[in-house]
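During the reporting period the student researcher (J.K.) took over the structure-prediction task from the postdoctoral fellow and processed the backlog of single-chain submissions. One of the processed entries is reproduced below for the supervisory committee.
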Amino acid sequence: MAKIIDFKKFLYLEERKEKEARKHTRETELKEVRFSPFIGEHDLEVGVSRVRKFLKEGDLVKITVVFKGRQMTHTEFGPKVLKRIMDHIKDEAVQDRAERMEGKRFVTVLRAAKNLPKKIEKTENIKKEDKDEKIKTEDKKSSSQEV
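J.K. obtained the following structure tokens:
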């Protein structure tokens, strides 16, 4: 059975469907929060609270540690600041992009963690299985070398 419909009405209905579909989608924005390499604890907590707020809204968060002037001689503080940040929000965020130096900035991108414990369990199980396989193959190699 075929339904006869006006072509303009068909185009109108298709346009309405597309508009309705776009209405319910949300684009994730990339928000940036800047930190200093020699940041105080309270300033760090304020920045972390902003990161939490952005993550709850569903946005990606770019964490930037900015080095100014003579601070460039101590770039080893960039990963330390990032570790302090991740200690505060370890259950709420996952790194989306690995940390790296971009000029005078140490940068990483975080994404809100959804079902994080399940993913960790899966990766831990895989790592355990890989270790078991490596041990078995090493045992086989060592036993074959002894003979």
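The committee noted the following: The chain is about 50% helix and 20% strand.
J.K. will present the remaining backlog at the next meeting.
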